[in-house]
Design a protein that fits this description.
Largest sheet: 6 strands, parallel
Oligomer: single chain
CATH architecture of the largest domain: Up-down Bundle
Number of helices: 29
Shape: elongated
Number of strands: 10
Amino acid sequence: MDGLKFFHQLIIILGFSIPVIYIFNKIKLPSIIGFLMTGILIGPFGLKLIDDVAGIQLMADIGVAFLLFTIGIEIQLSRFLKHLTEILLTGGLQILCTFVVGMSIGLTMQLSVGQSIFIGFILVHSSSALILKILKDRSDENSPQGRISIGVILFQDMMVVPMMLLIPFLAGGSGPGAQEIIWKLAKSILIIACLLVAARYIVPFILERLVNMKMRDVLVIASVVIAMGIAWITESLGLSLAIGAFLAGLALADTEFTHQILSDINPIRDVFLSVFFVSFGMILNLDFLRENTVYIVLISFFIILIKAAIVFGLVRLLGYPLRVMLLSGILLSQIGEFSFVLASQGFKNNIISSQIYQTFIGASVLTFILTPLLVAAVYHILARNRLYKVTDDSTSTHRIDAKNHVIICGMGLNGKNLVRVLKDTAINYAVIDLNFQNIKKAKSKGDKNTIWGDAASVEILRRANVEAARVMVIAISDRFLTKTCLSNAKALNPNLHVIVRTKYLADIEDLLSLGADDVIPEEFETSIQIFSRVLKMFHIPNSIILAQGNIIRNKSYGVFREVRYTQEAFDQISQLLAQGTIETYFIAAKNPIIGQSIRDVNLKAQSGAMIINIIRDNQTITNPPAEFIFQAGDQLVLFGSHSAIDLGLKILDGNNDDNGAA
């Protein structure tokens, strides 16, 4: 494409996206639909402002690659490998079941066996970009439905290779044999493993040396090269850009570079990803859609129904609750971008007719548009009805033998640390977790009161004897599950003290309105830890630091409601800080003031800090006289302004910071 033309098309895409997204935001519809509508509006079947859809496809592919790169970083390799069996099982069964259904549909339509197999191929795939965008917008990547959906689409992407190899065979040509297909698939798995190991150990080594250069632009360039370089390698070896980008992200997860890389990559990703969704809208033939509206709409709903039902059943077999089954099914119910690649190849090889191809394109774009709406509707219905309604039937659940205990929902890092402390202090507790491996490990360590299940389920809560519990701690990643668990726990036991950990400030008010007693937002607690340590460096008393922390909590997110500060309290703290502070100083051996008197050191005159007490041999000497001689082991209590204390400590140290401040 001509460089200037490329620039003009990019300006048109981004320029038209802004007002469309603004309108969709005002009417509270997902931005993804706004991008799709922008593509329909400016594309070759709309205003014809852009007629070269293939020319912008590269930007679209880059957007998907960057999205998968950032998702790979946030998922983390250790967590991904922990659920690898579940991913392979769900992904494999989803492909098998959907393929069989698609092939059956083709045979029912009296298509040939080759055509029917091809229908199964293109029906199998779901959209990586759409699903990941929805999950990321809702911060649901680490939820059960997020984990299942990401696993399935990655498995689907791997299967593109053998499907592409079979297209010549389905077209009636001399396609590859079974041995070649198996070898290609095995080679793909080997390539993935080698790249993952190499990236895991080589890339961080390179990045560390680049970071030591202390040049921000070098790290940005390196991040882009790593993401797109590994993606390019996988595509060159017969896999997709998407898989390579995801592997690059997984390799960099859990390293000290992840947060900076994400901040550098995210703006670039968002621009290219918006182009992807716009380009998707451009391929919808509006003339064909008008002529076959009813037919295409019915097929769209049929595709969504079939694909959602298959995933729903598979997730049910894994033992997940209805909420996860519904969301997983809807998330994976659309047609994916790789289906378009396969469909175009099938059309070029005369496997499918122009009529089938255009119908497939129209129905697929409609599934793209409908999926975000259906996902939003399911979340709304679940939130409104709470899905798990509390009933009076409390006799059907076998309860654990515990009272006045703590219920811990989620066995992540926070949950495990809390269990360790409760064990040491002999406080009874029960643990609920949806990860069976966590529960299995806990039971093997002798934790009998561990329950596998959904903490939002009323039956599971009753199993944990929530009515007799004293405290519940909710430390799980799923935002919706957290709110449902809180609501049902409070309905079963209104006196239960519930502490909720959340990543997001936006959830605080909702959690408090649902009855949470304490909400601990991670980012705010981190900020409090930072300023507390800064204040300690300036010798601010712990009482003042604690008070300031509580003030921030009360003013910023209203968590600790029992701590309420008026303006008078703020003024008192300010006055106290202005008046001065108290600090202690230990006289270590070889300190230069040993053997000198208070008059000799003349601390007050030199710094403004005053010695008000001295502790020697566990005896306190108040207002020590000027003739008092310092000895090793004395502990001085100093009073003065913050600057006076700073200067006084330096004088007592003999300008040596390595001695004495306690």
